[in-house]
Structure formats: C-alpha cells, structure tokens
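yo

u said u wanted the structure for the complex thing, so here. seqs first:
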Amino acid sequence: MSDELAAARAKRVAEMQNLPFDGQAYKRLVEAGLTWLRTNQQTVNALNVFPVPDGDTGTNMVLTMQSAYNEIKDLGHHKVSDMAAGVAQGALMGARGNSGVILSQIWRGVARGLEGEEVLTGANLAKAFADARDTAYKGVVRPVEGTILTVTKDIAIAAEAALEETDEPITILEKLVAAADASVEYTPELLPVLKQAGVVDSGGMGLYLILEGMLRYIYGEPLDTPTMTVQPMAALEFEEAMDSVEEGQDWEVVVDFYPENELELKPFYDALEEMGTSIQVGEGDGMYRMHIHVPLENRYLPIDYIMGLGTITNIAMENLLAQMDELNKNSEKDRLELTNIEPGEIAIVTVSPGPGISRIFASLGVAAIVEGGQTMNPSTQELLAAFENLPTDKVIILPNNKNIILAAQAAKEVTVKEVHVVPSRTVPQGLAAMLMHNPEGDTEKVAAKMIKSLDDVRTGEVTTATRTVEIDGVNVETGQVIALLDGKLVLAATTVEEACLSLLKKANIEDYELITMFVGADYARSEANRVADIVQEKYPDQEVEMQDGGQPHYQLIIAIE
Amino acid sequence: MKIRLVTDSTADIPADLLTKHKIEVVPALLIIDGESYADGEGITREEFYARMPTMQAPATTAAPSVGSFMERYEKLLSAGAEKVLSIHAASTLSGIFNAARLAAENFGERVQVFDSKQLSLGCGFQVLSAAEAIAKGTAIGEITHLLENLQKKLKLVAVLDTLEFLRRSGRVSWTKARLGSFLNLKPLIELVDGRVENLGAVRTTRLANIRILEMLREVGNLEELVILHTNAEERARQFLANFTSNLPAPPRVINVTTAIGAHLGPNGVGFAAVRK
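structre next:
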C-alpha cells in the first residue's frame, strides 16, 4: 500500500471512529457487505465443487442479503439491536439455497447477541459472533467442517481473542476479516472434496466478502469494482439477459474468440459499451465468449471489432424480438392445471426445474409449483408464498434438490401451517414420492409414506462439465459430458449417448424395469429420441420412456426404477 | 328353516364351493363388440383377457335382468326353500344389487337382498360365511348382522397394470384429479365400503409386488385369503412365493371374473383377505 493510500485510509478510519456505530451505521455496513458480495458474485459462484451448473452459492447469498437489506433500508431506527433484528428477519425470509439459510442463521445469531444494544462495541460484536456461531451450527443437522460454519467459528474465536487487546469495533472488525480470510483459505485442508476440486469453500468465501465489504466501506474504498471482471464461461446467463431487451437493442450477438495478446479488459468493455447493452464476457481455457445486445444497424460492429483482437471461432446472431415471441408462445402453451385444494386436504408444494416436469407434477395433483432447481434455488419466502394462500393448513413440500431442502425447512419454521418437508433430492425422487400422495390422509402418515418411497427410484443426470477437475476419481475436462448417479459423479464422456449408456451400465440397469428420460430444454428432441432408441436396443427387457422435462443445463435427467 | 343363498357371478366363488354349499349364481352380462355373453359362459376368462387388447370397442358389462333374478327366486321357493338370501356386488359400483332388489319386491319377506359393499371374493367371503351360518341353523336376521361385522374385517386391494380401464369405466372420480396422463402409472386400489379408493401408484411390477405384499402383511393374522389376478396367474404365484401365512392351506389363486376384469384391465394382481 502506498503511503498516500495508507494516510487516506487512516484519516477515514479516524473519522469513522468519531461517529457512533448505531442502527444507521449498521444499515450502511450491511449495504456495503451486500454490494461487495454482489460485485464478486460470479467469483463465489465459480467455487463449485462439482463441475456442474449447480445451486450458485454467490447468487443465493446475494439474494439472501438483498432481502435482509430490503427489510431495513427504510427503517429510521437508531438502536443497533432494532436494525440487527430487521436484518435477521429479512435474511430468514429471503434465504435461498443451503448457504443462504446458514447465512440467515448467522444474522439471527448476530441479532440475538446485539439484543438491547444501542451501538456496536467491540464487546457486543464479539458476543454477536459467538451467538452467530452457535445459531449457525444449530441450523444444520450434521455440521460439516471446512464450510461457512468453520469460518463463522474462526471469526467468533478471533473476535474473542481481539477483545483482550481492544474494545474498539473497527479494529475488531479488521481482525474478523483477517480471520475470515485465513479461515477460508484453510477450508480445503478440512474438507477433502474442496481440496480435490482445487477450490475454497464458496459459502465461507461469501461470508468473508460480506465482512470485507463492510471494512472497505469504513476504509472508504470502492465497492463496485470486482476483483475479477471476466466470468467463468459456465456463469454466463444469456437467457436472463432476455428479460432486459431494451427498445432498439433487438439483436443478440455472441462471439467466441481467442485473443492474440492478453485481452485488456478496460478498453474492451469501453468499446463494447459504445455498441450496445447487456454485455457479458466469459472465459474458459483461453477462449473468450462475448455477448451483447445491439440495434439492427450495429449488428456487425462487435464482430469487426473483435476480429481485430484475435481469432474468431464462432459467431451467433439472433433476432431477439422473434425469440421473445417464441418464448411468449411457449409460455401460453405451458399453462398448468394445478389441483384445487379443499380446506382440510393436504396440499403438495413442489419445486420444478422445467415446464415439462411441472406439467407432470401438476398431472399428479400438486397444489403449487415453485420454479427452480440446480441453478436457481427458490427462497424461503417464495416457498412460503406458494402455500400461504392455499385454503388448507396441511402442506407437504418436495424440494427435489439438495440445495433447497434447508430453505423448505426454514419455510416450515416461519408458518403457522402444519408443514412437512419430504427431502427429495432429485426430480425422480419427487415424482416417486408424489405417487404415494393421498390428499385426504393424515399429513404425518402421508409424509412418512412419501419419505419411504424416495428410495424406490435411482436418479441419473447428464450434463456438461463447467470446469476441469478431478472428483471421486473421475477426471473431467471443461465441455465434456458428465453423468451423475444419485448425486455422485460417476463418469465423463465425449457424447450424451456415451454418457447415458455408461451411466445405465453403472446403475446395473438389468436389475431394473423402467428407464424414464426427462429431456432438457437445450437438448434436441430428435437427438434424445436417437439415444433412447439405442438404449432400448441395448436393453430390450427394460422399458424406455421419454418425457419432455424442459430443465436447463441438464440434457437428461433419468429415473431408474 | 330352510334358507337358500343366491349371489352373482362377480363374487368369484370357485365352482366346488358353490356345489358344496348349494349356492345359486346369476351371471352378470358381458358385452363384447356388440355381442352379449353371460359371465362365465360362451367365453372363458382366459379367452376374454386374451381378446381384450384387440376388441374394437372396450368391453362393457350389464347387470342381469330383474326377470332372471325373479326366475331364480321362484325356482328356489317352489323347490321348498322358505327364505332366500341374495348377496351381491356393491350397489355403488354395479346395478346387480338393484336388479335383485326389484325382483325381490315380488316375494315380500321371503326374499331378502343384501349389499355386500364389496366385489369379487370380498363379496364371495360373505356368501360363504352365510352358508356356514345357515348350516349351523343361524336365523336370517342374525346372518346379516354377522355379515356386517365381517365387512369390517375384509380387505380387498389390487395393483392394476394401467389406469386406462378404470378411467374409462367412469366408476371412480379420482382418476382425472390425481393420476394424470403423462406418466404410465400402475394404480394401487382398495375397495372400502363400496368405494374404490386410491392408495397411490407405482411404475414398475417389481414395486407393485412389494406394495401388495406390504399391504398383505399389514392385515395381520388371517382368517381367509385368496390371491386375485386379472389373467396374470404367473405373477400372482410369483408374489405368493414371497409370502408365508398362518393359514393351514395355501390360498387359492383366482382369475377374477371378466365382468370385473373389463373395468380393471389385464395383468392386475391383488388379494381379498379376512382378518381374524
């Protein structure tokens, strides 16, 4: 750090130290934590153990923090305890994914530790993190070390130790951030899957970024410049960009290229911003992918520009308005017929990753469907909203994803309705459970039957690897097709066909009767048909059934029964 | 007092027991591609199920005529019976009971019609139990009381190979509401108090067998048991092989009457049991 910068920082800290750390200051700290986390969201998302498009921790934590901040942003309270209670409430309602739920538990603990306090002090900050640690550990059935829990614990220990030297909150916060940083770096030593994947724990990283953001605010450092501007290729979300098609910017251009020299990001972005909107840039194994929305007359500009930077390997150009029409038409077609629930009946709320799967769940009598799955974990609030207005007090939730189970359980905690969570980890498990549903039965017994049925089916998943990694003894390269069996990575292959056949072999398919393939949104139906034919030919004794799943990222979800 | 028993062909009582207890059977009617057959006559159960997939229109059923019941009652009474007890398939699911009831009105107190609220051996066990009571000289009022008690101890469940036939029969309301048309489902059903209830569904025969076996074990100590199937004898025996009971003899395996099978479809298995 230059002397100049250090002096500026010291001056700013001295100013801050003169201000009371009251409720309003707490609000600004939370906002700073949220902003810094959002700025680095993709970095956290990229810390995925499995090379699959999975419940993105960064996105989940940002949405959880956003909900926490929304709860307090208009509050005028001056007591820090009131503001902390608001953050806890907002985080709880907005919690998404496992990391979001644990984060909400942390804020709940912090609020508990700050109860009755007017301003933040070193002592109550330490107590707040001690309580946060206790609440977070209690919020998880089987705590695992090397995760956000460990980071929370290390923060609590550091805060307590720091108290022996000072009671000054900023100094203590500095120690907390340093402890969080060290703790995150150490997570791979505690959790072998992290070490194997060559990443640190994403949830812990998210927590560290929130605290670091608070400190950066105190230091007066910018919060909107990310530490990494280029996203990993898999993090690009072009479809989300469809939601924001601006007037006139109705052509989408995607260019893949290898830059001749190292790409200088600042001038690259500046040039693109001159041409259009919705700019996203991704990188993987040296190849860059640029995405932009431009007006009709500008549609060749980005191509000409990039041609001057390196070698273009692929160009895609599409008329967004035509695409939007298509999307609208599809959503019209996909209108669901949900079951009307009578008072006293059991309502099933299910999470579905795709329109085809939603349709099947609807046909089996679910009362409400929450969209979500691998890449988009619905929040506690969204699950709650799905059943709060149903005319019954009896509810069973099927999360159908391991990252949504905790949010479902959190929804159960905050409602007066009788809610049971049947912890289905996959769509086939959710469907198997659904077959045992009896709307007029005793809720507890029905839930027990449904839980028992989860083991009636095995789940295969076929997707494209988003990273190069070695997991569970399987070597995977970015772009390869990989297969998971009951959530465990079992193989990597070059084609979906090969992955599918090897997967079925690994599952000892001869011992089963029925193979149901749910075809993903990005996988051509004709291609799926071809693979299904090959499977049927190879296994004539098994019945092969194909269903339109419509799920993103996963070419095939396979139920093996 | 001499009491004679009448039932209908849907009770599925084996021929040897009918003879033994002198039980009269009025056949239900089966209509296949426009032609009408008396249940159990003109076409065998095996033939019927074998033809099922190729029938131009789905087979339908009809209750025997009021006249055929009147003839039967007349015959028994003129042959010396003092009373006739006529026990039939659930009135909620079939018109047989009503035809018998209308016929009985012509005979006053002499003919009494009883609603078994069951099907197949669920009704059959009641008829056989009545026969035993008659043999012991039990009064008719007492017998109907006995049968009402027996109904509480009966369990009749089945897993069908497909929902298709039941859906088409229009006899249950839940087929559309719950077990929608996207997945091929094998529904689990139970007959309770004259209603076909849905106990869920499975998607494979392996699981179907497991579920039926679980339900059979849940019955507990058995007084009576028959294994029922709709032309799936091999499967029924397979499933029976995994079951040991407290019963002195192995249970009979019965191919369900076509009049019921027409509404269930082939390749279903189940059981009718009486709890001790």
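Residues 240-244 of chain A have pLDDT under 50 and may be disordered. DSSP finds 22 helices and 17 strands in chain A.
cya
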